[in-house]
Amino acid sequence: DTGVSQDPRHKITKRGQNVTFRCDPISEHNRLYWYRQTLGQGPEFLTYFQNEAQLEKSRLLSDRFSAERPKGSFSTLEIQRTEQGDSAMYLCASSKRAGSGNTIYFGEGSWLTVV
Amino acid sequence: AQSVTQPDIHITVSEGASLELRCNYSYGATPYLFWYVQSPGQGLQLLLKYFSGDTLVQGIKGFEAEFKRSQSSFNLRKPSVHWSDAAEYFCAVGAGNTDKLIFGTGTRLQVFP
């Protein structure tokens, strides 16, 4: 049973460029989550999917952030017109089912540095 | 609003010593509670979780945690720390469900030989 896979693990980009991160959840997990973690802080919830449906996106940090999960399998998180404040680790997680009694498994994260 | 407080930013212990990491939460009903561990530059690994039932839960790597409703606490313990336990530890709460976890700011554990 492979874990949650994220790509790329590290990304350095110039301010104003767009970046995209990919997440492959654990097989058969139909819930997929994105979190952001800045230095010295705990992860912060951004958005999540049930299969291909995005159930909440109000926590996405601005309209420059968007996420998709087109076929209910892998997901992408895109940040447009990156800013230095976007530098953080972006964590993807997945779980098998919804709601209570739900264990969330995290990937290794994608580090973003905006210069 | 739900919140999690980890009062200790940094803890240093000697190898073989006992460990207790504190976690306090704010939530009106019974929460879902988790402890995760994060090694430098890595993702989070689940150590243990509490959903209901026995308030003392056992996890991986010899860790345990006790849910105390009266104190709104879920402290993590280990009787004898190993050098490989050095990492960042996060307490998290799921309020009502576990879809949107709220994390504390973490406690960094340093272990001296």
Could you please describe the fold and organization of this structure?
The complex is a heterodimer of chains A (115) and B (113). Chain A has no helices and 11 strands. Chain A is an all-beta fold and 115 residues long. In chain A, a hairpin with a 6-residue loop joins strand 4 and strand 5. Chain A is globular. With 113 residues, chain B is mainly beta. Chain B contains no helices and 12 strands. In chain B, the strands form 3 sheets. In chain B, strands 2, 5, 6, 10, 11 and 12 form a 6-stranded mixed beta sheet that branches. A 4-stranded antiparallel beta sheet of chain B has the order 3-9-8-7, with no helix packed on it. In chain B, a hairpin with a 6-residue loop joins strand 10 and strand 11. Chain B is globular. Chain B starts with a strand and ends with a strand. Classes of the chains: A mainly beta (115), B mainly beta (113).
Oligomer: heterodimer
The helix/strand series of chain B, from N terminus to C terminus, equals EEEEEEEEEEEE
| Helix content estimate of chain A | under 10%
Shape of chain B: globular
Query: Major β-sheet of chain B, in short?
Result: 6 strands, mixed
Categorize the overall geometry of chain A. Answer: globular
Low-confidence stretches of chain B: none
Quick tags:
heterodimer; A: 115 residues; mainly beta; seven-stranded mixed sheet; four-stranded antiparallel sheet; 0% helix; globular; B: 113 residues; six-stranded mixed sheet
Question: Could you write a compact summary of the structure shown?
Answer:
Chain A has about 120 residues and is mainly β. Chain A has strands spanning about 5, 10-15, 20-25, 30-35, 45-50, 55, 65-70, 75-80, 90-95, 105, 110-115.
